[in-house]
């Protein structure tokens, strides 16, 4: 009897929420504005996939990093312990963020945009130089890239702008110029670092969100031409970019210089075979492959887990991305739907670009693999982004859940 009463109550709640959000799907009001309706549970499949990838990534950090950690710091578990601590903190942060209202994220959009622009502006002056680029701000106990905050800020501010402009997204004044202006500011600041990979990601996410928001298709042709012109200038005029193109086209020709890393990466991937050499048994991590616990950790995954293990990792990412888009389609507000679309697209783009780089499908761009690559603050931001998606999933009516 109690179960039946609970079911009836949940159905009534779902119907009430459905009626409320069907009339508010333009994004004018969010779930927090309706306190009478109790929020539901976070999406269990999305949460489970996130935690599985997180645990998988921490285990691979231990395997990939112990040789370099022992050589450079005398402690083979140094990177592993730090990443585990950040993983625990990230999980707690995700759960805290998952309980926030959608209205909170909308209010945070503009302050976060201002903060990210300010941080990017001071990077050339106070940033730590690593491998010839100033992309990091050193806090003493850790470093972080302001570009990671800029990516999140872009998703939130674009979602808010699209909801504010509504049907005016079909015009160039509202559907193109404001968004191009935001991206132009980010690009101008990122060029000074320089940080080409962040420029690519921010531009791609912007295009996806504008498309989802209703910008007319023919404007994308013009913007695509501008992006192509910028890419040509960047690749031909920036020294570090042109060197990476050369290494991409013929890594063996510069195997002792720019091509060395990609050659070692391909050796690692090729030696894994079908089933791999075994977890912890890889050879390229013994100081042969640079950045083996960071941008190129997927190469170690292939070497130790083989084709089967690599496909398992990619399948987990694919399921997480598909579930993210499913949540976007069923979100209870337009703002929530756009935010989930943007964050899921951001995840998908980063995974694709990282895999493409380590397999030499694309030139090296310095993109980490979410949940796997070493980096504490980046992991915290990624987990916060997953928390935002989970928070939005709480407002999906029971009748829409699958």
Textual characterization of the structure:
There is one protein chain. It is built from 14 helices and three strands. The longest helix has 34 residues, at 297-330. It is mainly α. 68% of the residues lie in helices and 3% in strands. The chain has a three-stranded antiparallel beta sheet with strand order 1-2-3. It has helices at 2-22, 44-73, 78-97, 102-126, 146-165, 172-175, 177-191, 196-213, 217-237, 239-249, 260-272, 297-330, 334-358, 376-393; strands at 128-130, 133-138, 143-144. The chain has one domain (41-394).
Please sum up the structure shown.
Helices cover 68% and strands 3% of the residues.
Task: List descriptors.
14 helices; 3 strands; mainly alpha; three-stranded antiparallel beta sheet; 402 residues; single chain
What's the overall average pLDDT, rounded? 85
Order of helices and strands: HHHHEEEHHHHHHHHHH
Strand order of the largest sheet: 1-2-3
Number of distinct beta strands:
3
Write the layout of secondary structure elements.
Blueprint: H1 2-22, H2 44-73, H3 78-97, H4 102-126, E1 128-130, E2 133-138, E3 143-144, H5 146-165, H6 172-175, H7 177-191, H8 196-213, H9 217-237, H10 239-249, H11 260-272, H12 297-330, H13 334-358, H14 376-393
